[in-house]
Every structure is written in structure tokens, then in C-alpha cells.
Design a protein that fits this description.
Layout: H1 33-56, H2 89-96, E1 130-134, E2 140-142, H3 148-152, E3 158-160, E4 168-172, H4 181-184, E5 200-206, E6 212-218, H5 230-235, H6 238-241, E7 246-251, E8 278-281, E9 290-293, E10 295-301, E11 304-309, H7 316-322, E12 344-350, H8 369-377, E13 384-390, H9 400-411, H10 417-423, E14 427-428, E15 437-443, E16 449-452, E17 469-472, E18 483-491, E19 495-496, E20 503-504, H11 507-520, E21 525-530, H12 543-549, E22 556-560, H13 580-593, E23 597-602, H14 623-631
Parallel strand pairs: 18-21, 18-23, 21-22
Antiparallel strand pairs: 1-4, 1-15, 2-3, 5-6, 6-12, 7-8, 7-9, 8-14, 10-11, 10-13, 13-15, 16-17, 19-20
Length: 652
């Protein structure tokens, strides 16, 4: 089987229900009471049928968000996965046009087919609807920090006037089946114009050791820059704040006053006998339970809710300062795209230990054949859900907090002038149900095994007689990764070059040749992120899928990636291009599959990595190159393009 995680090559969802509206005709008065009674029954049946059909079809209306506890069961109609075949992209694209609807009634109906009963309640018992709760920008009120009244009373420089009644909600009922989650996730339906703090998520998935959930998001502010987009740049300024860690205090009555260790889980079980923890912005580093976080991650399953705080892989603010940049955000009207290291927002939500067993492979928990078959069928259903709530603070335009933190580490102090001046004292963060957020993000399992080719396989075109083998991933042993070198690429059957001037449509032949060459020079595995869905205008399938399948799942992994490029302008334009889809695919591949290989490269299908060393058989291969790099303790290799003419004598 394939080691792909989300929605690779699964069948499209079933077609929608056709609704036919007939004319209503007013009947004539009948002479007898019997006829009047019959007419009333017919009218009542028609009205009841129309109400039922309207209830089943999502309609677009403005609604007030219901309380979180009222959202129990999801909408019905999610198709379970079927054997892999070429995705029906046309059907997916047509369906996606309606997936941004705001549904009028999020409280769900009972599913007509109850979920199978499985041991240990390993599966999410209820299907919930992915919903974006949008918090208007005006809920954030900023004050002048030089105002004596605020300074003397140690009040924060800002406050939030938010509540459940002020939020708007957008529901995405189709993004709930793991077999089609990548196709249906609302990347291109990202709500705009209301909430600038909501992260622009492109991908998320569990870590291999099942201890955390990795998120890959993009900086939405970089899509529209320059003098013509001042208003958009001002609106999206909060996107930059998501890269800036903040110190937070968690006051949890359930922990009896003990101070949790950093990166530990906070917010114990929420029930009738448990109190809800309080989160507030820290006024000193000493009292902070987390010194650099940005999101509240509220996991829930089977009536249990546990909240953790997000963790950054590194300090984005420190990186920006080390690159000698004066600020992380340029004024509206400037070109933010220069700070390309602030394009991809990557962070992690620690998964509570109580929920980690839910991500186990289903077949390993079930013994009987009948139950195992049910488990395989239901593997496409989410294991649990998470709500992602950004902690909102104004974007920092200077390095005062960073400098305070560095000074505190060197001088063993805990005070911070910035925290006391800007955050104040006792600055309580609003309730998660009153805050803008992503709610009910479905979390899908990933395989514990990886399919690797035979050790003697040379597959440029031919295949050895040996069969590929299934290898269990051992995350505890870093030195025993299944692959030595893998490659990632972002491709499309057809696409436009920078500036949308020239179209390219020969990607099928390009990809086939590109894969053949790189497998021939001993790249162990290739991951293809297929962006075809954003560009095809006819037909109903991706030709790139068929190309990848011809090499076998032990050599090539296919990932549908229907995320559009938000700006394809040339670099010289006043609003330079931001290839958001490609950048996010690179981050996704690195985080998803980096743990499986010692080396990884990300290149286009018109770029070839040509090794300059030969193996013991006299064939050019990357293995002796990597052996040499290992001896030199080098972990990064940089390449330059070669403009040399092709060697015609070696071509066919």
C-alpha cells in the first residue's frame, strides 16, 4: 500500500441531489367536504417535502454561530473511500464552487447509517462540520501607549471586545472525509474581508510518532502588495503577528495551582466536574508557562476536550533580526515579498497523550476479520478533531520583546518592560468560544509503514523481479530511515508562466522523463504534488496521476494539491508574484516526508539533478556523492544551473 496520508487518488464524492421545483396551482373549491380534505392532505405533503429538500441542500444565508456544545453531529452524505483510481477533478471542481456556502443550520442531523462500533472507541463517534468563525477587525481596540492614564494603571495597550454574537460563521460540510480532504479543504475558499488573524491553512497532519499535529499555512498578506493594495496590506497585517511568539500564562484550577512544564498540555478534561482554565498574556517571563506560542489547540473526541498551546519550530522573529531587517512588516504600499522567509508559517500543536492512541493504525487494534474489514472501510473517517484559535495581539513592528527575552536569558532576569507596557497585568484572553477560530478540523491517521523498493532495483524503465517490501517506521531510531534520498516536485498538466503570458501543456511527457531519470540515478522515492485541478478546462481527470501510477507506489507517491497561486505576476511588477501553492507544497513535503529520508530535494520537472560520481558498477549515482558528504559532515548541498549544450551523442 501507499504511504500517502491525505486523500491521494481516491474516488470523488457522490453527485449532489437534484431538486426539481414544480409549479403550485391553486385548486378550485370542491363541492364536498371529502374533496376538501383530500386537497389539504396533498398540499401538506408537498410543503413537507419541500421543507425536507431545503433542509438537505446547503443554502447561503447569514447566521449567528451556535454555541460550541450545540454542534454535535455532522451533515450526512460523505462517501467512503473506494479503490484508487484517477480522481474526477471536474466533478471535484464543480462541487467546490458551492462549498463556501454559509449553512443555515449547523446543528447536525442523525446519520441514516450509524457508524460501526469499534473497540476502545478508536474512531470519532460523531461527524462534525468544519467551520470558520470570523471575528471582525473592529473587536481589537488599540490605545496610545504614551497615554498616562493607561500607563499609570498598568493597563494593556489594546483590548478585545469580542463575543459569540459578534462572530460570523462559514461552514464547509464536504471537508470531512479523509479520502478526499485534500481536494475539499477550503484553501481557495479562505474567507476574506472579515478576519485578518485567521491562519491561511494549506495542509496539516499528525507527526509520525503521533505526539503532535503539524500545520503548514501561508502569509496571506504577501498576495497583494504595492502602492495599489494599501488597504489590503493594512487589513492583512495581523497575518505577520502569527509569526511572532507571545508569552502566555495558563491558570488551570484542575492542576491545583502547580505550574506546568513548557510544551505540556493545558486545559484538562472539560465536563460537569472540571473547571475551565484561564489564559492570559504574561507580564513577565517568570510567570509565563509558555514563552513563545500563538495558537490555542483545542482537541476533542467522545465528550473529552483538552487544550494545548502551539509550538514554533524556530523563532521567526530572531531569524528576521539575524538577517539585519529592521522590522517584520513593511508599511502598506511597500513590497513585503522581499521577506520570503516569512511566507510559510509552520507550527505544531502538541497532541495530548490521552488522544494519541486514536491515531493508531486500525488494523493493529482489531483481531477478527469482519471487524478488520469495517475498520479499513472507516479509516477514511477522522480520528478526532481540533479547534485552532489564534491568540490575537497587535503586530510588533520592532524587536523590543525579542531584545527583552535575549537580555533575560543572558542576565538571568525575568522582567520585561515591553510585557508590562503593552500587555499590562491580568490581561485575560477571551474565551475560545467568543474568539475567531477554525473549528472541527478533522484529524486523519497516517500509515505506520512505508513501501520501499527492492534493494537491487534500478528502475529507469524496467522493473526487477523482486517485489517491494513493507517496512515499519521506527521513529525512535533516527539512523534507520527507510530512504537515503527523496525528491519532491510541484507540477500541473498545464500551467501559465510568470505573468500569465505563455502556457505550458506538455507536463505529462516532462514528468515521465523526469521521474525516469531521477530514479535511474538512485533517488529512492519521489513525491508529486499535483496542481492540475486549478488549470484544467476540459476532461475530468489528471494525466499526471496516470503517470505516477505507472511507476508503482514503492517509487512514487501522488498527492492531489488543488491550491491556486494567489499572485502569478512577474517579479518586476508593483505587486510581485507570490507562488503560495508551490511554497506550501514544499513545506508540506518537507514536514510530511522529511522524517523518512536522510536527504531531500525539491525541484521542478524541468530541472535535473545530475550526479558527477560513479558507483561501483560504473553508473552515475547520487549515493557516492552522499557518502562523501557524510564523511565531510555536510548536511546542505547547493546547486547552480548549467548552461552547457546537450551532448547529442548520448541522446536517443
Amino acid at each position: 500500500m501507499n504511504n500517502r496520508v491525505l486523500g491521494a487518488g481516491q474516488a470523488p464524492p457522490a453527485k449532489g441531489v437534484a431538486v426539481v421545483n414544480g409549479d403550485r396551482r391553486k385548486g378550485k373549491r370542491r363541492s364536498t367536504h371529502r374533496h376538501n380534505t383530500l386537497l389539504r392532505c396533498i398540499c401538506f405533503s408537498v410543503i413537507a417535502t419541500l421543507i425536507y429538500v431545503q433542509f438537505k441542500v446547503a443554502t447561503t444565508v447569514n447566521i449567528e454561530p451556535p454555541p460550541a456544545q450545540a454542534i454535535h453531529k455532522g451533515l450526512e452524505g460523505f462517501q467512503k473511500g473506494s479503490p484508487r483510481k484517477s480522481p474526477d477533478l471536474l466533478a471535484v471542481r464543480n462541487r467546490n464552487r458551492n462549498r463556501n456556502d454559509i449553512v443555515s443550520d449547523i446543528e447536525a442531523k442523525e446519520s441514516p447509517t450509524p457508524a460501526a462500533s469499534l473497540p476502545n472507541q478508536n474512531y470519532a463517534e460523531k461527524s462534525l462540520v468544519l467551520t470558520a468563525y470570523l471575528e471582525p477587525q473592529e473587536t481589537m481596540v488599540e490605545f496610545d501607549i504614551d497615554n498616562n492614564e493607561h500607563d499609570n494603571n498598568r493597563l494593556p495597550s489594546f483590548k478585545r471586545n469580542t463575543s459569540t454574537s459578534r462572530l460570523r460563521s462559514v461552514a464547509f460540510p464536504n471537508a470531512n472525509n479523509c479520502s478526499t480532504l485534500m481536494q475539499n479543504f477550503p484553501v481557495d475558499d479562505f474567507p476574506v474581508g472579515v478576519d485578518g488573524w485567521l491562519p491561511w491553512i494549506h495542509d496539516y497532519f499528525p507527526s509520525l510518532d503521533k505526539t503532535s499535529i503539524h500545520f503548514v499555512a501561508q502569509n496571506r498578506r504577501r498576495c497583494d502588495t504595492g502602492a495599489d493594495n494599501k488597504d489590503k496590506m493594512k487589513f492583512w497585517a495581523p497575518q505577520v503577528s502569527l509569526f511572532q511568539g507571545i508569552p502566555v500564562v495558563v491558570e488551570d484550577p484542575n492542576l491545583a495551582g502547580t505550574k506546568p512544564e513548557p510544551k505540556s498540555t493545558h486545559g484538562r478534561r472539560i465536563g460537569k466536574d472540571a473547571a475551565t482554565p484561564t489564559y492570559r498574556l504574561a507580564s513577565s517571563f517568570q510567570e509565563a508557562t509558555h514563552n513563545a506560542t500563538r495558537f490555542q489547540c483545542r482537541f476533542h473526541h467522545g465528550g473529552t476536550t483538552i487544550t494545548t498551546l502551539s509550538v514554533f519550530p524556530f523563532d521567526y522573529e530572531f531569524v528576521n533580526q539575524q538577517k539585519h531587517k529592521k522590522t517584520m512588516i513593511f508599511p502598506p504600499g511597500d513590497r513585503d515579498t522581499q521577506l520570503f522567509w516569512l511566507s510559510q508559517l509552520v507550527f505544531t500543536c502538541p497532541l495530548p497523550e490521552e488522544f494519541q492512541p486514536l491515531l493508531a493504525s486500525p488494523s493493529s487494534l482489531i483481531t477478527t476479520e469482519s471487524s478488520k474489514k469495517v475498520a479499513i472501510d472507516d479509516q477514511h473517517q477522522p480520528a478526532l478533531y481540533v479547534d485552532l484559535i489564534p491568540i490575537r495581539t497587535p503586530v510588533r513592528t520592532d524587536y523590543n520583546l525579542l531584545l527583552d527575552k535575549l537580555y533575560a536569558e543572558v542576565n538571568k532576569t525575568s522582567e520585561s518592560a515591553y510585557l508590562q507596557e503593552v500587555f499590562g497585568r491580568n490581561h485575560t484572553i477571551p474565551s475560545m468560544d467568543d474568539a475567531g477560530r477554525w473549528e472541527n478540523l478533522p484529524i486523519c491517521r497516517r500509515s505506520d509503514n512505508v513501501l520501499v523498493p527492492p534493494s537491487s532495483s534500478k528502475s529507469g524503465g524496467g522493473r526487477d523481479q523482486q517485489q517491494p517490501s513493507m517496512v515499519e517506521i521506527d521513529t525512535a531510531q533516527e539512523s534507520k530511515k527507510p530512504y537515503r534520498l527523496v525528491a519532491c516536485t510541484w507540477a500541473s498538466s498545464a500551467y501559465k508562466r510568470r505573468g500569465d503570458v505563455h502556457g505550458v501543456s506538455d507536463s505529462v511527457q516532462r514528468l515521465k522523463e523526469w521521474i525516469q531519470f531521477h530514479l535511474m540515478v538512485d533517488i529512492d522515492h519521489i513525491y508529486v504534488y499535483d496542481n492540475t485541478d486549478t488549470s484544467i478546462t476540459s476532461g475530468n481527470s489528471s494525466d499526471l496521476y496516470d503517470v505516477t501510477r505507472s511507476f508503482g507506489a514503492d517509487r512514487v507517491t501522488y498527492n492531489p494539491w488543488p491550491c491556486k497561486i494567489c499572485n502569478n505576476n512577474k517579479p518586476a511588477q508593483s505587486s510581485p508574484g507570490e507562488r503560495s501553492s508551490q511554497y506550501a507544497a514544499e513545506s508540506s513535503c518537507r514536514k510530511r516526508y522529511g522524517e523518512l529520508s536522510e536527504w531531500m530535494t525539491f525541484i521542478d520537472i524541468d530541472e535535473y539533478m545530475v550526479p558527477m560520481k560513479q558507483n561501483e558498477d560504473g553508473e552515475y549515482s547520487w549515493r557516492p556523492v552522499m557518502d562523501e558528504m557524510d564523511k565531510l559532515n555536510i548536511s546542505i548541498m547547493k546547486f547552480l544551473s548549467s548552461k552547457g549544450k546537450p551532448r547529442v551523442e548520448f541522446t536517443e
